């Protein structure tokens, strides 16, 4: 280590190769997972590299490096326990939906709607929204392709598509008949 402190690269490489089994043994006593253990060993080697100037060549090297290894191992264990306290192991992931329906039933309705119903609903939309639906949903173009064809920016296409879906949802929703004779709920 004294030679490595003086800048001897070959001595430093030899030192690292020589301490590697010791470091793995120290880490292996506390960390069973080989991948996590190797990460800790690499962290110890980085600590050794950053702190090599603090080593006093008059003192034995093994206790110095062992202390660094023990402290880095304990740091890693504390971090693992902290992270593990917030994790929940599950056998089966919960479903996010109560039924097999999709998130956006309107988009499915666009695909499965009869041609007449869809054509009527599309005609109620402003021109930009009609273009967005036709290019993005009916022709299945990417945003970039639709932008090139329509001359609209990608952002404008996204906004137009969002607004079109909102308007089509209202237009294609089943109409609810109100009772004749005035206000509801009196």
Automatic annotation (TrEMBL):
Organism: Magnetovibrio blakemorei
UniProt GO BP: DNA-templated transcription initiation
Taxonomic classification: Bacteria, Pseudomonadati, Pseudomonadota, Alphaproteobacteria, Rhodospirillales
Domain RNA polymerase sigma-70 region: 17-79
Annotated Pfam families: Sigma70_r2, Sigma70_r4_2
Record Gene3D superfamilies: 1.10.1740.10, Winged helix-like DNA-binding domain superfamily/Winged helix DNA-binding domain
NCBIfam families assigned: sigma70-ECF (TIGR02937)
A GO molecular-function descriptor: DNA binding
Superkingdom of origin organism: Bacteria
Keywords carried by this UniProt record: DNA-binding, Sigma factor, Transcription, Transcription regulation
Name of the protein in its database record: RNA polymerase subunit sigma-24
Similarity comment: family membership: Belongs to the sigma-70 factor family. ECF subfamily.
Residue ranges of domain RNA polymerase sigma factor 70 region 4 type in the record: 117-168
SUPFAM superfamilies in alphabetical order: Sigma2 domain of RNA polymerase sigma factors, Sigma3 and sigma4 domains of RNA polymerase sigma factors
